[in-house]
Design a protein that fits this description.
CATH superfamily of the largest domain: NAD(P)-binding Rossmann-like Domain
Strand content: 15-25%
Number of domains: 2
Oligomer: single chain
Shape: globular
CATH architecture of the largest domain: 3-Layer(aba) Sandwich
Number of helices: 10
Low-confidence stretches: none
Number of strands: 11
């Protein structure tokens, strides 16, 4: 068996066509969806990522602003900027690009963003709403993962989903979203004893631990669906995932590539959340 690829680029393109139509419908009502991205410092990876977000906004018809600040900006000044955009009528979503300099509290920044404009889905209120099954902005990467699986018409209900990783950005919210889809969910991580025994039980395996080639084909059940969230730079400078792709593709039924897998979906679901916010403004 050689696994079928789940192309994040393909799924993202299809989703963005739908989002483009939704944005056009809102514009007919006189509402232009708006997203502001706040970038602190000169991190090349962060700059490249936010430029990708701005380009994606243009693609679907969302107004965007990229605000850049020096690494020396004080925490107080950055929080004031966020509060300004909380009140800005033309902005439906606020995104502060992480990571931040050490002197700025990530928690304070996230808490300051209005929950109604928290299109990253990181605010404790949105997380709480997600936990309790209420309407909420969903964390973009897990949201994108679920959408990729649905796009391929892969059943989730009743399946055993194993998530390797327990971050607030991927692992924990992913577990909640799969529970909402009626899956049985196990969470493992780098300190799990006998990790491969757990991963081999998975019908759907999501690996988001941030460790190069943590999972190989020997750790995967025959026919499992494998979603690799890892983005690591190998010793040779190549982008690789948390899953050893060559061995895993011989055991899995479906697998995501690196790059071109989960990444494009993260930005796409950010756009979806921004449109969701703009629709509330139209009511």
């Amino acid at each position: 068996m050689t696994a079928e690829l789940i192309s994040g680029k393909e799924v993202a393109q299809a989703k963005r066509q739908d989002l483009k139509q939704q944005a056009a419908a809102l514009k007919e009502k006189g509402i232009v969806p708006g997203l502001v991205v706040l970038l602190v410092g000169e991190n090349p990876a962060s700059l490249s990522y936010v430029k990708g977000k701005v380009k994606a906004c243009e693609e679907v018809g969302i107004y965007s602003e990229l605000k850049r600040y020096p690494e020396t900006i004080t925490e107080e000044a950055l929080l004031k900027e966020i509060e300004h955009y909380n009140k800005a009528d033309h902005i439906d979503g606020i995104l502060v690009q992480l990571p931040l300099p050490d002197h700025i509290s990530e928690h304070k920044v996230i808490d300051t963003i209005s929950p109604e404009k928290d299109v990253d889905g990181f605010h404790p209120i949105n997380v709480g709403r997600m936990v309790t099954g209420q309407d909420a902005f969903l964390s973009c990467t897990p949201y994108g993962i679920v959408e990729m699986i649905k796009y391929k018409n892969i059943p989730i209900s009743g399946k055993h989903v194993v998530i390797v990783g327990r971050s607030n950005i991927v692992g924990k919210p992913a577990s909640l979203l799969f529970l909402r889809e009626n899956a049985t969910v196990s969470i493992a991580h780098s300190r799990t004893t006998n990790l491969s025994e757990i991963t081999r039980q998975a019908d759907i395996l999501v690996v988001a631990a941030g460790r190069e080639n943590l999972v190989s084909g020997d750790d995967i059940k025959e026919g499992a669906v494998v979603i690799d969230v890892g983005m690591n730079r190998s010793a040779k400078g190549k982008l690789v995932g948390d899953v050893h792709f060559e061995s895993a593709k011989e055991k899995a039924s479906y697998i995501t590539p690196i790059p071109g897998g989960v990444g494009p979906m993260t930005i796409t679901m950010l756009l979806a959340n921004t449109l969701q916010s703009a629709k509330k403004r139209s009511l």
